[in-house]
Specification:
globular, alpha+beta, two-stranded antiparallel ribbon
């Protein structure tokens, strides 16, 4: 009897109308980001989800697609304490997307924004969705301190900085990310001078990019209310604070080489993109600006995360059947100068083709946003037909990488 029932079920299942779908190409249709605010700077009054709403709203408007046509939203966000339930959902509804849109918040530490985009790309490639929004957001200025639940112990209580604990400390060794960077610098004999030289170069590149209008059309000004005062934030804040005279004298808290100046700066901001597959492009008559060619994740020993991008990039190029010589432009997140220098050496890439408009050292690093920011910046600045690679190391020993081609 049991076998006959199984046979009936098997026949029913085999005749159910499931059709294999071919893999679709995935495109970036538009992108938008906020200016980046320095830690407890101009964007401090704005929450991470409000920043996310601003980026999503402008990306959707720029794409020329109706908000009701967005089928799903993925947003990276690392420091979620006190934001309330479902930060991605808050950002989407705050942007005016329909309440029927499902949303997911992604946490892959510094690679969160990029991972949100590659997860969306996977959904689109298999035809599960046709138009999506993906990106990342963070307000490090508003991250709270936490207190362990329970009885108050004798001798006082100790609070934890959620940014330090959840965003900047290796969970296995207890090392600060700066100590991990110092460890890599020592092993590879990358000097403080080399790191400071690169840090200064990052600021100079960003200053030049601003002067030439490279970021025009990428940044969307945001209105900020502080008390009774309302003002507009239009530019990245950190680069305006650069002081060449004191840069090389910034302290090295974790050893002898990794200085505060050559580190990424804590910051607030959000970036979002509208992604679509062939079906979505045709259905909504959209004009794609770039093609997502491939993506990859990689991992190694947790404290060696500074070197993870090289692993991911090698895998990425292998998957795409390309070599480093096919890549016109690279974005390797400037978590620390040593990360860029070490991976450029490992991959034998000319530093003049990496982060050509500066990066997290000079504009800041909102953890959940940065992956989306550097991916979208590639799309914004590549020339037609060119390939670009974006990659970020992330705490825990990982990295995320993506390969795009400008159309």
């Amino acid at each position: 009897m049991r076998n006959s029932r199984l046979a009936v079920f098997s026949r029913q299942f085999s005749t159910t109308r499931y059709h294999l779908r071919s893999i679709e190409e995935v495109f970036i249709v538009s992108h938008a980001r906020t200016p980046l605010g320095s830690f407890q700077g101009q964007l401090q009054p704005v929450t991470a989800t409000q920043l996310g709403s601003h980026a999503i709203d402008n990306a959707v408007k720029k794409a020329g697609v109706e908000k009701i046509s967005i089928e799903e939203v993925y947003m990276g966000c690392v420091l979620q304490s006190a934001l309330g339930q479902a930060p991605a959902r808050q950002a989407a509804l705050g942007a005016g997307l329909p309440k029927s849109v499902p949303c997911t918040t992604v946490n892959k530490v510094c690679a969160s924004g990029l991972k949100a985009m590659t997860l969306a790309a996977a959904q689109l490639a298999v035809g599960h969705r046709s138009v999506m929004v993906a990106g990342g957001m963070e307000s490090i200025s508003n991250t709270p301190f936490t207190l362990a639940r329970g009885l108050t112990p004798y001798g006082g209580i100790q609070m934890k900085d959620s940014c330090q604990h959840d965003g900047l400390t290796d969970a296995y060794s207890g090392w600060h990310m700066g100590k991990c960077a110092e460890n890599t610098a020592v092993k590879l004999a990358i000097s403080k001078t080399d790191q400071d030289d690169y840090g200064i170069l990052s600021y100079r590149r960003t200053e030049e990019a601003i002067a030439k209008g490279v970021l025009d059309g990428e940044i969307f000004p945001i209105q900020v209310k502080k008390g009774k005062k309302i003002f507009s934030v239009e530019k990245d804040e950190e680069v305006q604070r650069f002081d060449n005279h004191s840069f090389r004298n910034t302290p090295c808290p974790w050893g002898d080489t990794v200085g505060v100046g050559s580190c990424s700066k804590l910051a607030d901001g959000a970036s979002a993109a509208v992604l679509a597959n062939n079906t979505g492009i045709k259905m909504h008559n959209l004009q794609p600006i770039a093609r997502i060619v491939a993506y990859s994740d990689a991992a190694l020993e947790p404290i060696d995360w500074p070197m993870a991008p090289s692993l991911g990039i090698k895998d990425l190029l292998k998957r795409a059947g390309l070599t480093k010589n096919d890549i016109a432009q690279w974005e390797i997140n400037e978590a620390f100068a040593v990360v860029v220098l070490a991976n450029a050496r490992e991959l034998d890439i000319d530093i003049n083709s990496i982060n050509i408009h500066g990066g997290a050292i000079s504009v800041g690093h909102p953890f959940g946003m940065s992956g989306a920011r550097i991916t979208n910046h590639l799309v914004h600045t590549l020339k037609k037909g060119q390939y670009g690679v974006a990659s970020l190391c992330n705490g825990g020993g990982g990295a995320g990488s993506i390969l795009v081609q400008k159309l």
